[in-house]
């Protein structure tokens, strides 16, 4: 970051922002593997235990039995998120108060990375040997230490980015995150989970499911050490004092932030409205993220690699959304950028409601071809939710000073994790009651409509002062 000497305007340091993005690279890399594989692991292991049948027999003989265990899968996934709901604000507040020779965030980032990376490959190992207790315990360990990593890592961007530039910076670090997710997605195309699940238990090959977890661990460690080697927190905090103070004066808030006074009523209303709408859109987003793998394997009867291709298609659309969201927000404000993203995503999920198995056998295991219309849905959803996620986090940390960024990052993730705690269980019960996979897009669309209504009616559109904010290429400093 720097201030243009001739105009006095703030400029985004592109290189430094990309380096900070390595933190998000590691986060999405691990979560893509976790979300793509673990719900199916849980479905498979509980269904086999409950009905004393192999996975292949279950899928071929009585698909409703798969739906009957989704509420158990939801509870396990929700317990993980419940722990995150508690831990994220704690680690955020602790990192705000930490002082060390390597900064206030780095101790948490490095510890969380190393423990998570060592534990992560044990999840598929315990699953392969049918040890559900061991698998769930390792999932809990990974989650706890990823929470130690996640909040401080995400807080790094607003720590050294003035408020008016955070939407642009958030777009860049989210693109880096999606590159991390892409590594996991490509692995899922070549190491198909359905090839493991659809065969008799005795024919299963451990390496098919183990390799993605090992590679994710290795890349996460590399990303953390790149971050540590290039971002010197304490030095940057001193260098950027002037820019951060100028950014504070240009914030898009109703009343100025003052650490010596209670939060103003106007700012508090804004915060609660954003967090409430965020809770609802994560109810929708996490429903798709948690169950899309099972939806493809057990409802569409398609290869799991189709899920990965869908993720890539959606990821490309997301990158476009993240790259343009900051510019859109400069034109119409963050509120209407988020509202547009929610509306676009509702359209995509409405189309998804009409998707159905194709009935065209293409796989060696009797799998059907994947409905092309879902790739269109992936593009629409990816772009729409990118607009939402890009602008929402900056809106939350806009309402606090630099001393409380970790705490307010905790608020942001508390809202998202609350949703991710509730939605797997709630949707699992909906599946059990309806015995219909079509409930997935309907449920998600309803939640997004509620979020859209809450956000547009309760959140004010306040633009940052533009007079001193650099524009276009002038707003990017590559040094």
Structural class: mainly alpha
Order of helices and strands: EEHHHHHHHHHHHHHHHHHHE
The side-by-side strand order for the widest beta sheet comes to 1-2-3
Please, what is the CATH homologous superfamily?
MFS general substrate transporter like domains
How much strand content do the residues show? under 5%
User: What general outline do the C-alpha atoms trace?
Assistant: globular
Q: What would the average pLDDT be, to the nearest integer?
A: 83
Total beta-strand segments: 3
**What is the CATH topology?**
Growth Hormone, Chain: A
> How is the biggest beta sheet arranged?
3 strands, mixed
Q: Which runs of at least 5 residues are low in confidence (pLDDT < 50)?
A: 466-479
Please, could you describe this protein's structure?
There is one protein chain. The longest helix is centred in the N-terminal third of the chain and has 38 residues, at 14-51. The chain has helices at 14-51, 55-61, 64-68, 70-97, 106-119, 122-128, 132-159, 166-190, 193-197, 206-230, 233-239, 241-249, 265-299, 304-332, 334-352, 373-397, 405-434, 439-458; strands at residues 2-3, 10-13, 476-477. Strands 1-2-3 form a 3-stranded mixed beta sheet. The protein has a single domain (10-463), classed as Up-down Bundle (Growth Hormone, Chain: A). The protein is globular and about 65 Å long. It contains 18 helices and 3 strands. It is mainly alpha-helical.
